[in-house]
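Lab meeting notes turned into a lecture example. A postdoc, R.K., suggested we walk through two folding results consecutively so the class can see how the record format repeats. The first protein's sequence and structure tokens come next.
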Amino acid sequence: MAKRKAVGFLISEKGMSERRACRIVGLARSVQQYRPMPKDDASALGYLTSTEFLMKTTAPALETLAVSTLPLNTQTQTEDSRYNRP
């Protein structure tokens, strides 16, 4: 971190190019140019996003609702067809 600050100082105060400042300080230019990506704390901690939460909590309820709304004769035919084998 100190080398990056030194490079920044040489660039801003002394008017040096980034390439020359990095060479003088002994810092790779890729290190100077690196910008860390902000991390999503929710995924890092294992929390669900709001969409994932809704899918996880409502999908079982929707399945139950879909099965309970089937016509009774459809459920009966399915059950009867298992026992009526030739």
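The second example is placed directly after the first for contrast:
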Amino acid sequence: MKSEDHENEHVENKEGNLFGYRRLGIAQEFENVMGVKIKKVKIHVSLGKNLATLVEIIALNHILEQRGYNAAAEFENALIKAMKHAESK
């Protein structure tokens, strides 16, 4: 891992992101590869994680986004709604 990667993770931690990366995927990152803008997805891998399943889910999420459905935004909206409902009780 390059030293600037550690610096970026440290900055993200200061912003309140758990474990130094965004878990919902609402904010998208892109990288320019040979003049083509490519969506960048960070996967933090550890022992016991099924990498094939993670990649398959990322690919499915990309297809859904291309069709206009943003699962992360839908989840965030449902979560906020549930939290507001719980506060009103």
